[in-house]
Amino acid sequence: MTMPSGVGIGWRQEIASLLAGLPDLRWVEVVAEGVMHGMPPALRRLRDDGVTVIPHGVRLGLGDAEGLDAHRIAHFADAARITGAPLVSEHIAFVRSGGIEAGHLLPLPRTREAADVMVANVKRVQAELDVPIALEPIAAVFTWPEDELTEAQFVTEIVERTDAMLLLDIANVYANARNHGWDALEQARAMPLERLAYMHVAGGVENEGIYHDTHAHRVEPEVLGLIAELSTHTQLPAAMLERDGNYPPASELLGELDAIADAARMPRVSTQVSVGV
């Protein structure tokens, strides 16, 4: 399989029929934990038709100070082999502590000690993988008082020390900037874009003064603007839409894919389909 290029989308069973009808779809991302024991038939047909499938993990907990679960590492590596993926991705985050599962991606304190933990855990996973890994900084509604580094410095140190690739979620950048008073474009440009594998794009909503990256709302125009600004200075290899519920009509979903393509200066995915969602 080739590395992701152009515009892709997160594969979900709810929109499988729509994605099967996109003749120009080059790649999709799937939750790694959902394919650890085999791919759904509709996803397998896409892969067999030449669509690249990228497993995206959510439960490894690469920032967990207590170490990683060997079974989860093995399953994660199996997901890459099952899908025939050219790379995998996971988050710069922790998901458990003291034996308690948070059920959510939690932000690490941006300290050198936390960076050391991430680096050690990533290297352990890399030892089991046959393909590269891309790491994604998350959206966080709070920061830690112990922070020693900016987010970009923290991410750069981790990916450079592990020789990992970067998965830049531009919606996360926007959410963090909006919630913490940062400059979103400045934050995005400070990331190690020379290691960029692909980008996530998603929608969100503000609730009681906090902007939440929901994956269930329309992509904000400001997020598309960030992509357009980045594309004037950096050649963006690939970008994808994350949608995890509240699915709109097919025409609207395809319109978002086209909007991402236009902002990123990439070819559009064909919208000449009649499948509804």
TrEMBL record:
InterPro entries: MbnB/TglH/ChrH (IPR007801), Xyl_isomerase-like_sf (IPR036237). It comes from the Bacteria. PANTHER family: UPF0276 PROTEIN HI_1600 (PTHR42194). NCBIfam families: PRK05409.1. This is DUF692 domain-containing protein.
